[in-house]
Amino acid sequence: MSGLSLTLLLAGGTVVLIGLYVLVAYNRLIAQRNLIAESWKQVDVELQRRFDLIPNLVEAVKGYAAHERQVLENVTAARGAALAQAQTGAGPAAGHRECLHAGNRRSVRGSRELPQSAGE
Asked: Is pTM, for the whole model, over 0.90?
């Protein structure tokens, strides 16, 4: 083999190796770009799922708010009745306690009837 053919062979081999390196690097970059695009699509899917759950959350909060409003009204009415009895001096103190305990029993019974959340 002559020196010129050996030089051409080495130069050609180097060019082929550099070409292979560029090709592999380009394929890796494209694969990474596709992976990033797919990851962002998954983020979009999760955000859409959360957005779709908002109406359910609003309805659950409305249900809890209605229940809490009813409990507060019951307790307030029982407390007012107990205070009114205490101020007028009518009835024993046990009557006041019974009135408040009845309100608490209704509250506990009502809490068992709370709307169930989607997570339970």
From this structure: no
